[in-house]
Amino acid sequence: EIAAILEEAGVCTVQEFKVACQEYKTSDLPKSMSFLNDIPIELVHYRFEGYLFPDTYRFYKDESKDCATLAIDKMLRNLDTKLTEEMRKRAQEMNRSIHEILTMASIIELEASGHPAEMPNVAAVFYNRLAWTDQPNLLGSSPTMYYPNEKNPDKRYDTNVTPGLPPGPLCAPSLNAIKAALYPTENFKYTYFVTDSDMKFYYNTSLEDHNATIKALKAQ
């Protein structure tokens, strides 16, 4: 989607963007961006999925193929500035890498986009599921079933069948989602949630209560 937007704007072609993502060199970047070296390139579908910070940008456009690299560089550096020292220390305190935080944030974004107040609660639900010891640590996020696309989904990303976090982010998470992944609601014991047609969130602590909520919502 990012590549298509850049092509439509005349910055670069989709192919140039894809090649630039593969060939982008991190060796000359500042130390603050060393987290890019932790991306498991051999496991993820798109190298910088989740790292190209969603924002409004101004780019130059000309016939140079460097335009794709410059666009990628600008978005990556924007993420670097958004990740404050406090946020990085918080990730360390949680014993989580930036890659894991962005992966969790991307799922939060898929589930609660446009509802920042609910994001810390959603994050808490998913972390509670990761802490399960009496059953598989399935996050159970419906949107993850369709990554990278509905016609060819990757089961490694499907948190309904594969325990734990997926190999990497599934979208470009907002700053609110990243903060929620770092600061989930404290003492939030719920392990299930569902939304109604108005995107009101309902939380439960048991599958039985969760299914009852879904049944009641469907009846309405």
Characterization of this structure:
The protein is mainly alpha-helical and about 220 residues long. The chain contains eight helices and two strands, in the order H-H-H-H-H-H-H-E-E-H. The protein has helices spanning about 1-10, 15-25, 65-80, 85-95, 100-110, 120-130, 175-180, 205-220, and strands spanning about 190-195, 200-205. It has a two-stranded antiparallel sheet. A hairpin with a 5-residue loop joins strand 1 (about 190-195) and strand 2 (about 200-205). The longest helix has 17 residues, at about 65-80.
Secondary-structure blueprint of this entry?
Elements: H1 2-8, H2 14-23, H3 66-82, H4 85-93, H5 98-112, H6 119-130, H7 175-182, E1 192-195, E2 201-204, H8 207-219
Antiparallel strand pairs: 1-2
User: What structural category do the secondary elements indicate?
Assistant: mainly alpha
Widest β-sheet, arrangement of strands: 1-2
Indicate the radius of gyration in whole angstroms.
Answer: 19 Å
Q: Would you identify the regions where 5 or more consecutive residues have pLDDT less than 50?
A: none
Helix content: 40-55%
Q: Kindly state the number of beta strands.
A: 2
Main sheet record: 2 strands, antiparallel
Question: SSE order in H/E notation?
Answer: HHHHHHHEEH
Count the helices. How many?
8
Query: Which geometry do the CA atoms define?
Result: globular
- Share of residues in strands: under 5%
Mean pLDDT: 96
Distance between the termini: 36 Å
